[in-house]
Amino acid sequence: MSVKSGNASIRDRTQEFLGIAERVKKSVSPQNGPTSSGSKREEPPRPAMAMQSEFNRRASKIGFGIHQTSQKLAKLAKLAKRTSVFDDPTMEIQELTAVIKQDITALNSAVVDLQYLSNSRNESGNISSDTTTHSTTVVDDLKNRLMSATKEFKEVLTMRTENLKVHENRRQLFSSSASQNPSNPFVRQRPLAAKSAASNSAAPPLPWANGAQSSSQLFPKNQMDGESQPLLQQQQNQQQQQMVPLQDSYMQSRAEALQNVESTIHELSNIFNQLATLVSQQGEIAIRIDENMDDTLANVEGAQGALLKYLNSISSNWWLMIKIFFVLMFFLMIFLFFVA
Amino acid sequence: MVKITALYVMKCSPEGSDPIILANASDLSSFGFFQRGSVREFLVFVSRTVSKRTPPGQRQSVQHAEYKVHSYNRNGVCALGFMDDHYPVRSAFSLLNQVLDEYQKNFGDSWKTVQADNAEQWPYLDEALTRFQDPAEADKLLKVQRELDETKIIIHKTIDSVLERGVKLDSLVEKSSDLSAASQMFYKQAKRTNQCCTVL
After folding, report:
1. Residue B161 in contact with partner chain A when CB distance is under 8 A
2. Which of A28-37, B135-144, B189-198 has the lowest mean pLDDT?
3. More confident of the two residues A224 and A285
């Protein structure tokens, strides 16, 4: 790619170019009314230049957007790394994730628009090949940068899910030992049972471990049951009202689980499609490799045949041997003559 | 670890009398030998209480000490499960559903005439207890979700390895094209040496 990332590495020498063009114009046609031809020539390039600058403006906007998105991504990565078991900035992370996703989709559509614009312009006007290569290079560069930003985003998300899993495990480790305290929302649905539970939990928190005490626990429970019969009617109504939310939550949890399964399957199908695309592309590459190897084989075989012929001709060329013998004799004579 | 301690099937008469146990299965192996009797009495009592207070056609979950009791009353037959806190509620209720269906299939309507606690064992309940210690067995949704998650992880790994493969294939293409160019030069050299030796 001729266009390096970032505009810092590109020097803008437009002014120098314009100055040189002016000078050349003046020197080539000094008497042809340079102003009229200059004004005429300025007309056609102007719409082209306007479109070029439009293209440039859009490309610079997209590049800026990509830069901002990658900054947000860096912030998200830092947040995701920072999560600990208790201090979890979930809300910020989710907001940031949603914002970044929106940005990436918007940038994607903008890049597609840009490509379409450059294609339409290349077909319509008579633009130099340099402009076309420049525009295609810029569009490719933007696409590459967007793709790398998306890949980083995916990595950050996977890292965050792994972190969450690790924290969940650690939390279960810690909380399973502390499950003696029944801090359960269902407690409110059975106030009667909760009362007896409360009286029991005043005793040691392991009711099963103390066999001697459990039998004594049963008796006070029976007594309490008899006492609290009159309260039953009152609490039946309460329980009726709280039963419906339980049914709802049960149905809701089932519906939620089904939706989860469905979305997971959608994602899986997506991933499978991408996998198929990747593999088919690589299949093409493999075919190319195979052709290259076939060419190599043919060349090497031809070369081997040629060398074999050469060997044959050398070893069985009697005429050649006689010629060499004569040349050797000739040099020997000369040598003898000069020395002796 | 999630655990089911006991499963009960009771017949709940409308009001007044205590429910009657139709079938039970319990796993009291975690308690000492001498505590099992009292634990069993406790379970029976709590199941009677809870099923009496579950209106027909309703599901209920009660938190008791370190257990959750889930009960589902359907047409006067109530299924109860004693599970620990980690057992997912939805799996618990689908498990109770299955137990009730199985009971209906096996015993039909004979439970309507039962007047006293049924002391005989129902083998299905025992094996259900052992099988459903793992909540994924009871709840197909959970199983499917778990398998899908594993599949997703494996697919991600596959895609990573396919990308690596792509990189290696690219390098292979480069090398093979270099090879073919070199072999072409070799061929030309060989042809050239063959041509010029005849002059000698």
Report:
1. no
2. A28-37
3. A285
- What element of type H or E holds B24? strand B20-26
Distance CA A189, CA A182 (A): 14
Rg (CA), chain A: 42
pTM above 0.90, yes or no: no
Contact B32 A211 (CB under 8 A): yes
What is residue B27's DSSP assignment? -
A279, B162 Cβ separation under 8 angstroms = yes
Distance to chain B for A108, nearest Cα, Å: 22
Is A292–B59 a contact, with Cβ atoms under 8 angstroms apart? no
Task: Give the pLDDT confidence score for residue A225 in this predicted structure.
Answer: 44
**Binning pLDDT at 50, 70 and 90, where does residue A194 land?**
very low
Give the pair of three-digit tokens for residue B163.
């990308």
Task: Tokens for B178, please give them.
Answer: 């270099």
Report how far apart the first and last C-alpha atoms of chain A are (Å, whole number).
Answer: 72
CA distances from A31 to A18, A38, B29 (A): 21, 13, 112
Q: Which two tokens stand for residue A46?
A: 């102007």
Q: Nearest 10 degrees: CA dihedral of A310, A314, A317, A320?
A: 120
Q: How far B99 CA lies from chain A's nearest CA (Å)?
A: 18
